[in-house]
Amino acid sequence: MLNKFYINYAIKWLIICLSVGLISGSFSALFLVSLACVSNYRDAHIWIIWLLPIGGLLIGFFYHYYGKEVVKGNNLILEEYENPKQTIPFKMVPLVLFGTLITHLFGGSAGREGTAVQMGSAIADQFSKVFTISKSERKTILIIGISAGFASVFGTPLAGALFALEILFFSKINFKSIFPSFFTAFVAFYTVEFLQVKHTHYTIPIVPELTISNLGWILFVGVLFGLTAMLFSKTAHFFVKMFSLFIKFPPIRPLLGGLILAIAFYFVGNTKYAGLGIPTIVDSFQNTSENYDFLLKILFTTFTLGAGFKGGEVTPIFFIGATLGSALSVFIPLPIALLAGMGFVAVFSGATHTPIACTIMGIELFGIDCGIYIGLACITAYFCSGSLGIYSSQIAKGPKYKLYNSLKKDQFENI
Q1: Tell me, what DSSP letter sits at residue 309?
Q2: Per mean pLDDT, which range of 29-38, 169-178, 269-278, 325-334 is the poorest?
Q3: Mean pLDDT of 201-227
């Protein structure tokens, strides 16, 4: 009888993980192909950016009248994990897919991780209706949804599985969730591979020997990357608060925000900061970026998302970190590609409080040879990025918060 229980349990989770991986991977493949199409069309017809206010109004309208339950996006997933209330509606999938494609078609500065994670989580959560699921199993379902979305959209299955585990509970790992997270991430990843949808590849051709001098430079740039992550998070929350405070009717926020963005793109004189910015990221590994690229991308992205456009923060954060690292190569004696790669994942580490997943992501993307540089930069950025991250509903956990709390306690006791 006991053996039959375990067999049924294993079969249930095998079906769930395979289904979530295959469906999420298929949706991610569709999303990536569609995203490439709309981005190419925008680049070939720059005038379309002037329609960004119309695109914003459409997004605001649909979310206000049809998607109030899912408008929180990634924060809704985090809230459901910590305090389960109801199944995430499947409508999140078409709404975030439509919203993100509209954002990128008309030139909004946004990413793609948020879309993939939301689609994966909404798809996964539907299985809580199909099977008898306990509260702890519901948490595992949300985890595999995040891992499937992240792994499939970036082509990094190990990082995707770890990101889902780390962002939800850094210091308290539920071991029952580990295997489903990894298994689903790989199923989603290979689904995209099977459908022959390509991911962007980056290379770090030169990795110098780790010396005391180089170690000092790693720690120095790690601090800068952490402070940049803090700046991004604070600016993102600032614009969300300002739009909510001064514009009470939600559909008007992306309408007005889109108008301001279109005018800003006109005065900047180029569309480098529109969309994902992949060409600029790739170029930063070979040529020195302008020292203001990362700052302008912070402004354009946080304003875009604060106004209510859809997408995500992660790829713009890659842009920010890579261009900052590239610009620092002017006076830091480390290879430009290595600095760009360190910034690529380290700023992400600080902004999401996920140094382990970001280190693994760096190794998956750039190779094991630069692992020690990537790891040290991610850990340093993590500790120097403050307690505020890009997700307002993320619960503060992990060693950084224990350190911060102990320092606050010591300061209080010394008063």
Answers
A1: -
A2: 169-178
A3: 94
Domain span at residue 332 reads: 212-399
Write out the two tokens for 88: 């995430």
Contacts of 220 (CB under 8 A, 6+ apart): 332
Angle 394-400-404 from CA coordinates, rounded to 5° = 100
* Separation of alpha carbons 63 and 81, rounded Å: 22
pLDDT tens-digit readout, 296-346: 999 999 999 999 999 889 999 999 999 999 999 999 999 999 999 999 999
Helix (H) or strand (E) holding 373: helix 371-384
131-140, 267-276, 350-359: least confidently modelled range: 131-140
Q: Is residue 159 part of a domain?
A: yes
CATH number at residue 34: 1.10.3080.10
CA 171 to CA 159: how far, in whole Å? 17
Instruction: Check if the beta carbon of residue 363 is closer than 8 Å to that of residue 371.
Output: yes
* Closest-CA residue to 258 (of 245, 246, 274): 274
Nearest-5° angle of CA 219, CA 222, CA 226? 140
pLDDT at 412: 42
Q: Say if 311 falls within a structural domain.
A: yes
End-to-end CA distance of the chain: 63
Q: What is the largest CA-CA distance in the chain?
A: 72
The average pLDDT across 30-38 equals 96
Residue 111 phi, psi dihedral angles, 5° rounding: -110, -155
Q: Taking the model in full, what pTM does it have?
A: 0.93
Q: Cβ(325)–Cβ(284) under 8 Å?
A: yes
Residue 347: C-alpha distances to residues 58, 107, 140, 168, 298 (Å): 32, 23, 27, 19, 12
258 and 116 belong to one structural domain: no
Give the CA distances from residue 94 to residues 80, 100, 290, in Å, rounded to whole numbers and listed in that order: 20, 10, 37
User: Rounded CA gap, 320 and 189, in Å?
Assistant: 25
Report the distance separating Cα 2 and Cα 9, nearest Å: 11
Q: What pLDDT score was predicted for residue 40?
A: 95
Residue 240 and residue 135 in one domain: no
How far apart CA 251 and CA 292 sit, in angstroms, is 32
Whether residue 261 lies inside any domain: the answer is yes
